[in-house]
């Protein structure tokens, strides 16, 4: 593992940064405030191959890894366009299908992921179970040559933009035990409905509660093997954490860039406010925390792309924790540096607070990450 990115990855980073600059924060905020979607950016990123950098070449992708896709997410976020659906569609769903799907499923879905013409949401969270796969009540039962799904999911991102939703449900395995399995549910399937959840976060991507009322699916809607659901699930959750970390790093960079530019120019007592250690040191500390978090994200992506799922699981959780904390610190200090201007629309800093605060909660809360590290990294007794 090298701490210096390859020429190819640096070129990818620069190209995506150029694309992000073409749209920028004003584009993203205008879309969010008007209730419209970032389709132009998504479609151009797809045409340029950025959304499919991790899709195998034989299915139209770039043949790279999750580290390459994380670069795309980070640079777009750093340009002011944190696309939440990147965490879900190409990272979770495309990865699971590429690794665990049938050949028919790969041919059906992966080319669309590669060029951005297909978007898939991911549904695991439930009102009374959160993401605890042992307590989810959404079930799938065999019925003739197909399946019938019943249940409810909540806080599902981007369902109104998706062609289908990958749903985590419980099925009976060959031994009769209930285990999680994954199903691809078209959004227009009879019995599948959605209700938007009003949110205080400024984002073009909305959250939904999804209802599955006896949704009938063909057998082929099952992703991979009937008994492989748990392994398939975690194959997608590690990339989810890595991508969330990358997006948080991009937002942290954006906040610091705006804070330092303001601190260099703003004068109150004849000198730029950035010359005072009361502001310079907190910004420097935030920068250090952010760079350390980015290193852990790089490590997690490298381990995952090397096929070390266990090592990547630990690193991805640590990266997500570290990046969320660093991003919150960066945005908070950026607001403080701007003073009252930090809460104005003109300077575009205050609107970042809700986005980074969400990173402490989703896609996995900081408390559950600490539980994981205490139990699996430190060998302490399970606490929940």
Write up this protein.
The chain is α+β, with helices and mostly antiparallel strands. Helices cover 51% and strands 15% of the residues. The chain has a four-stranded antiparallel sheet with strand order 2-3-7-6, covered by helices on one side. A three-stranded mixed sheet has the order 1-4-5, covered by helices on one side. The model has no long low-confidence stretch (mean pLDDT 95).
Write the layout of secondary structure elements.
Layout: H1 7-34, H2 39-47, H3 66-78, H4 84-100, H5 103-115, E1 120-123, E2 139-143, E3 146-157, E4 164-172, E5 178-186, E6 192-197, E7 207-218, H6 229-265, H7 277-305, H8 309-338, H9 352-359, H10 366-377
Parallel strand pairs: 1-4
Antiparallel strand pairs: 2-3, 3-7, 4-5, 6-7
Properties at a glance:
alpha+beta, 10 helices, 384 residues, 3-stranded mixed sheet, single chain
Number of helices: 10
Given the C-alpha coordinates, what overall shape results?
Answer: globular
Query: Which value, in Å, is the CA radius of gyration?
Result: 21 Å
Task: Say how many strands there are.
Answer: 7
Class per helix and strand makeup: alpha+beta
SSE series: HHHHHEEEEEEEHHHHH
- Cross-sheet strand order for the largest sheet: 2-3-7-6
- Ends: how far apart? 35 Å
Largest sheet geometry: 4 strands, antiparallel
Strand content: 5-15%
How much helix is in the residues? Answer: 40-55%
Arithmetic mean of pLDDT? 95
Low-confidence stretches: none
Gist of the model:
The protein is an alpha+beta fold. The chain has helices at 7-34, 39-47, 66-78, 84-100, 103-115, 229-265, 277-305, 309-338, 352-359, 366-377; strands at 120-123, 139-143, 146-157, 164-172, 178-186, 192-197, 207-218. β2 and β3 (146-157) form a beta hairpin.
């Amino acid at each position: 593992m090298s701490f210096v990115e390859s020429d190819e990855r640096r070129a990818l980073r620069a190209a995506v940064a150029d694309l992000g600059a073409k749209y920028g924060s004003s584009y993203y905020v205008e879309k969010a405030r008007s209730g419209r979607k970032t389709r132009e950016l998504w479609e151009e990123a797809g045409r340029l191959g950025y959304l499919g950098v991790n899709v195998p070449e034989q299915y139209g992708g770039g043949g790279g890894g999750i580290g390459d896709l994380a670069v795309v997410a980070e640079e777009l976020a750093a340009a002011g366009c944190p696309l939440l659906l990147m965490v879900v569609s190409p990272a979770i769903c495309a990865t699971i299908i590429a690794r665990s799907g049938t050949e028919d499923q790969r041919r059906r879905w992966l080319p669309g992921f590669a060029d951005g013409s297909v978007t898939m949401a991911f549904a695991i969270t439930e009102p009374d179970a959160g993401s605890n796969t042992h307590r989810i009540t959404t079930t799938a039962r065999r019925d003739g040559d197909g399946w019938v799904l019943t249940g409810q999911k909540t806080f599902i991102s981007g369902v109104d933009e998706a062609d289908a939703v990958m749903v985590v449900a419980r099925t009976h395995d060959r031994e009769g035990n209930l285990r999680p399995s994954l199903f691809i549910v078209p959004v227009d399937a009879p019995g599948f409905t959605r209700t938007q959840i009003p949110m205080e976060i400024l984002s073009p991507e909305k959250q939904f509660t999804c209802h599955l009322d006896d949704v009938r699916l063909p057998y082929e809607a099952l992703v991979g093997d009937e008994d492989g659901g748990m392994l398939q699930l975690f194959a997608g959750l590690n990339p989810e954490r890595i991508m969330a970390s990358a997006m948080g790093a991009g937002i942290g960079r954006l906040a610091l860039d705006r804070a330092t530019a303001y601190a260099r120019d703003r004068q109150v007592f004849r000198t730029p406010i950035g010359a005072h250690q009361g502001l310079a040191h907190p910004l420097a500390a935030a920068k250090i925390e952010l760079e350390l978090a980015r290193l852990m994200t790089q490590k997690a992506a490298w381990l995952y792309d090397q096929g070390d799922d266990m090592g990547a699981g630990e690193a991805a959780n640590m990266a997500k924790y570290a990046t969320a904390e660093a991003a919150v610190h960066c945005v908070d200090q950026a607001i403080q540096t701007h003073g009252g201007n930090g809460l104005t629309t003109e300077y575009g800093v205050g609107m970042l607070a809700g986005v980074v605060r969400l990173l402490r909660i989703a896609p996995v809360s900081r408390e559950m990450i600490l539980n994981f590290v205490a139990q699996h990294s430190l060998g302490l007794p399970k606490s929940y």
